[in-house]
C-alpha cells in the first residue's frame, strides 16, 4: 500500500515541478521588475513615462521575436533579422522621399523583408543549406547593402503621419508601438495555438520525419516561417524609422541576439517542437527592463553587453533543460 501511494505521489510531484518550471520566465520578469523598482525608485524607474518608454524601445524586438518563435519552433534559426530591419527602414524611407506616400513606404519596407525571408527560406528548403549558415551569410550581405545604397547616410522622414502611425504617435496615453505589439502578439498566439499551421510548426520541430510521414509538408512550413520572419523584420524596420524619424543602416544592430534570447527565455525550445508566444513577449519585455535599468544605473555600453551576454547564456541553458524534459 505504501509503495502504491509512493508511486502515485512521485509522478504528481514531478508533474507539479514540471509546471512550475514553465513559469520561470514570468517569475524572473517579476523579480527583475521588483529589483529595479526598489533600487531605482528615486531615479524614476516606476514612472509611467519610463515604463512606456520601455515598451517603445522593445516593440521592434518583440515583433521580430514573435516571428522568430515560429522559426525556432521548427528547429531552425534566423540571424538576419537585425540587418533586414535596417535595410527595410532605408527602403521605406527612400520610398517616402521619392513621393510614394505612406502606402509606398509600407510596401517597400515590408517587401524588402519578405524578399530576404523568401531567399532565406528557399536556400534552407531547396538548396538544403543549414539555416545558421544561410542567415549568417544574408546578415552580412543585407548589412552591406544597407550601408551601400545610401553610402551610410541616414534618410530623414518628414511625413508626420508616417512617423505617427509607425512609431512616435500616441493615442491618448497609449503609444502606437504598444498597439502594434499587442495586435501581433494576439495574431501570433492564435496562429501558433489555435490553427493547423501552428500545430504543423510544432510537429516539424518536434520530429521532422514523423511530421513528414503524418502528412505535414515540412519544407513548405519552413519556407513560410522564414517568409514570416522576413515580413516582421521589415515591419520592425518601419517602426524603427517611424520612431526615429529616419532610416539608418545601423538600426537593428545586434538585435538578432536580443530576439533569440527573448524567444529562448520565454520557453521555446532551441531544438524545436516547443513554442510559446506569450512567453516570448515576456522574455522581450524582461530584456527591455534589464537594459533600461542598467542605463539608469549608469553602466556603460561594455558593461551592458556583458550582462546581455550572460542573459543569452542563461537563456540557452534554460532551453537545453526544456529539451531534456
UniProtKB/TrEMBL annotation:
PANTHER family: ABC TRANSPORTER PERMEASE PROTEIN YPHD-RELATED-RELATED. It is found in: Cell membrane. GO terms for cellular component: plasma membrane. The chain crosses the membrane at residues 23-41, 53-72, 79-96, 102-124, 131-150, 170-192, 223-242, 257-274, 281-299, 305-323. The keyword Transmembrane applies. Keywords: Cell membrane, Membrane, Transmembrane, Transmembrane helix. The lineage of its organism: Bacteria, Bacillati, Bacillota, Bacilli, Bacillales. This is ABC transporter permease. It comes from Bacillus canaveralius. It is a multi-pass membrane protein.
